[in-house]
From TrEMBL, chain A:
Coiled coil (residue ranges): none
Protein name: Acyl-CoA dehydrogenase
The UniProt record lists the keyword Oxidoreductase: yes
InterPro entries reported for this sequence: Acyl-CoA_Oxase/DH_mid-dom, Acyl-CoA_Oxase/DH_mid-dom_sf, AcylCo_DH-like_C, AcylCo_DH/oxidase_C, AcylCoA_DH/ox_N_sf, AcylCoA_DH/oxidase_NM_dom_sf
Residue ranges of every copy of the Acyl-CoA dehydrogenase/oxidase C-terminal domain listed in the record: 246-372
Alphabetized UniProt keyword annotations: FAD, Flavoprotein, Oxidoreductase
Keyword Cytoplasm recorded: no
Gene3D superfamilies: Acyl-CoA dehydrogenase/oxidase, N-terminal domain, Butyryl-CoA Dehydrogenase, subunit A, domain 2, Butyryl-CoA Dehydrogenase, subunit A, domain 3
PANTHER family (alphabetical): ACYL-COA DEHYDROGENASE, ISOVALERYL-COA DEHYDROGENASE, MITOCHONDRIAL-RELATED
Protein species of origin: Actinoplanes awajinensis subsp. mycoplanecinus
Cofactor(s) essential for the protein: FAD
UniProtKB/TrEMBL annotation, chain B:
SUPFAM superfamilies on file: Acyl-CoA dehydrogenase C-terminal domain-like
Lineage, uppermost ranks: Bacteria, Bacillati, Actinomycetota, Actinomycetes, Micromonosporales
Protein name: Uncharacterized protein
InterPro entries given in the database record: AcylCo_DH-like_C
Length: 385, 217
């Protein structure tokens, strides 16, 4: 069994404490995504807004239980993500901060870009987005059609459309993936200011995870200064596909932990609302608890591997696929403890069931994760020794 | 209307129209409440009801005991969710509970079949590289699994309806089949105005009348 060290154990206890408050606003955020603006003082939201900002830019970070946490390792992210998502996965996704873009900035941005990006985040609560998916290209993101072309005056112009982009409509800055030349190496990420002309983002109402405010983004000749091309100091290979793979590997365990948090939330909810379970119910509840514990171990192992070898995200894929399925199963199973009409009379449970459906697609669908797990198997990289 | 008619109607005309017909074809103007008093119907169906299913029998409705629980959103507009809180009256005729559950399963299966049609069309239109997603082997396998589930359910709902306990399991099987298909729809099945919204409503109907499979009253 993997056990957390004192530092991460401390993180877990604190985050669990913060999550209690999140439960109080979860339904409100589900109804109204603008609720996040009223929750900026929640310690979890404050924490998320400072994650993935390296120490150099934020030397006087508030300590938690005597320790410093900046979210730069996958292991740290999974511990916080599970606990915060067990409070409210919607709020985790709704929070301001570097979020998904943070990992890419860390990998690819040069000094000036980091100054700009972290500077914005530190000046005021700032939402960011990360735009890869397009209306016609989801899993097959390599086929993206959004174009990044020279404007003839030393700058660039973005043209195309992105879809299902978390925080798209409320973000001030974001990263957009676009094609600057044909072929598999032609993908480039650029930093975008959402106030730029030609940028439009509209929320897409969803079944669950409504805090994330998925958005449809239209890029109608958005000007991008050449200095905002991420990885411009690197070779095209390293700034394109390589960086994408590294980034997704690093993020994947965190997405798995969000799914795990949703499953655990439903499991905890049963125990809180049904103080006396029958013997059969207790056995069933305990069995589910053991499944949750098992998937948590898988996620921790995946995070440890990604931290040690960022190019190896195969186990992270297995963990993500497993956790997404667990979230769906455990939330549906929780209904069995309440009898007919539970989704109508227990709005929190109803929300968890709806939220659970969304994690399947975040950062790669189950099939894509299975294919990646298979690659790990045949390449001997899944950790069977 | 029997389960098979409900299935065909739902596949062709959708949830709200079929639920309306199911309610209209009950012998009386009743609120067909489940074991915990819950019921989900189109709003117009709530007007002019005079009876209620409570404690397994048909009783006279006390309008003051109808509690509004909220709305169930569907692409055709919201349905009303209510709970009957009235005391059971003198025992009336037994409510046709099993028949209702069977028709409800037929309705949900019809929606699931329409979802399968929509999923096949969607995947035929999306590509990975030069190939339609529909032709990926993992996708073919998943669609084969889903259609097998649906046919197994359809056979059981055809002719004499199965007993209530089996219907509970069938409803669960429909939910799981819908979930298989939703995964294949990608994020387009997660939007509030897409096919995933119908699945959510279908699950809410099953929950209102049946609850989870393992629930023991
Ligand atoms: C809550 C949420 C948050 C999101 N946040 C973001 C975000 O911030 N930024 C962003 O860019 N995107 C985001 N997305 C979009 C997400 O990344 C995509 O939904 C995902 O990549 C899948 O793409 P798709 O929905 O187009 O499905 P498709 O790619 O169309 O897939 C449809 C089905 O085909 C399967 N499939 C696809 N390719 C293959 C294959 N080769 N072999 C076998 N099966 C295959 C899939 O598994 C799926 O079942 C978000 C989505 C959700 C639901």
């Amino acid at each position: 069994m993997i056990e957390l060290d004192d530092r991460l154990g401390t993180a877990r206890v604190h985050a669990r404490d913060w999550a209690r408050d999140l439960r109080g606003t979860a339904l409100e955020l589900d109804r109204d995504p603008d609720t996040v603006y009223r929750c900026l003082d929640n310690p979890a939201v404050r924490h998320l807004s400072r994650m993935l900002i390296p120490e150099r830019w934020l030397p006087d970070r508030t300590l938690i239980g005597g320790y410093r946490f900046d979210g730069m390792t996958a292991m740290e992210r999974v511990v916080f993500a599970e606990e915060i998502a067990a409070g409210d996965a919607g709020m985790l996704l709704a929070s301001p901060g570097a979020s998904l873009s943070g990992v890419l900035i860390d990998l690819l941005a040069d000094q000036e870009q980091k100054e700009w990006f972290y500077g914005r985040l530190l000046a005021a609560p700032t939402w960011t987005f990360f735009a890869l998916t397009e209306p016609d290209h989801g899993s097959d993101a390599g086929a993206m059609g959004t174009a990044l072309d020279p404007d003839g005056e030393g700058g660039l112009l973005l043209r195309g459309a992105k879809r299902y982009i978390g925080n798209g409509a409320r973000a001030q800055v974001g990263v957009v993936f676009a094609r600057d030349r044909p072929g598999p190496l032609g993908a480039t990420a650029v930093l975008v200011d959402t106030g730029a002309p030609g940028f439009k983002a509209e929320p897409i109402p969803t079944i669950g995870l409504r805090g994330a405010q998925l958005s449809a983004i239209t890029l109608d000749g958005v000007p991008v200064p050449a200095a905002r091309v991420l990885g411009r100091h690197l070779s095209p290979t390293r700034r394109g596909v390589w960086s994408g793979v590294q980034m997704f590997n690093r993020l994947r365990p965190g997405v798995a932990a969000i799914a795990l948090g949703i499953a655990r939330s439903a499991h905890d909810y049963v125990a809180e609302q049904r103080s006396s379970l029958s013997k059969a119910e207790r056995l069933r509840w305990e069995r589910t608890g053991r499944r949750i514990d098992g998937v948590r171990q898988l996620i921790w192992q995946a995070a440890a591997i990604v931290d040690a070898q960022p190019a190896n995200g195969h186990l992270a894929s297995a963990a993500k696929a497993r956790a997404a399925r667990l979230a769906e199963e455990v939330t549906l199973e929780a209904l069995e403890y309440f009898g007919p009409g539970a989704r109508l009379t227990q709005p929190m449970l109803d929300k968890l069931i709806r939220d659970a459906r969304g994690v399947e697609f975040m950062e790669g669908t189950g099939n894509i994760q299975r294919l990646n797990t298979f690659q790990g198997l045949v390449q001997g990289k899944i950790g069977r020794d | 209307m029997n389960a098979d008619q409900a299935r065909r109607a739902a596949r062709a005309h959708g949830l709200t129209a079929t639920l309306t017909t199911m309610h209209d074809t009950l012998p009386e103007r009743v609120l067909p409440c489940g074991p915990s008093g819950c019921c989900v119907l189109p709003e117009p169906a709530l007007h002019d009801v005079i009876g209620v299913w409570t404690a397994g029998t048909v009783a006279v409705l006390d309008p003051a005991a109808v509690e509004r629980l909220g709305r169930v959103e569907t692409p055709d507009g919201p349905l009303a969710a209510v709970r009957y809180r009235g005391a059971p009256g003198p025992a009336g005729v037994p409510a046709p509970w099993s028949d209702w559950l069977a028709r409800l399963a037929g309705l949900r299966l019809g929606l699931s079949e329409a979802l399968l049609d929509a999923t096949v069309a969607h995947l035929g239109d999306r590509r990975v590289g030069d190939t339609p997603l529909l032709l990926q082997q993992l996708i073919k396998g998943a669609l084969a699994d889903a259609v097998t589930e649906q046919i197994e359910i359809k056979i059981q709902l055809t002719g004499t309806p199965p007993p209530a306990e089996s219907l509970v399991a069938l409803h669960r099987q429909i939910t799981m089949t819908d979930r298989m298909l939703l995964r294949l729809l990608g994020a387009s099945g997660f939007t509030a105005d897409g096919p995933g919204a119908v699945v959510n409503a279908s699950e809410l109907l099953a929950d209102a009348w049946i609850g989870g499979e393992g629930w023991v009253p």
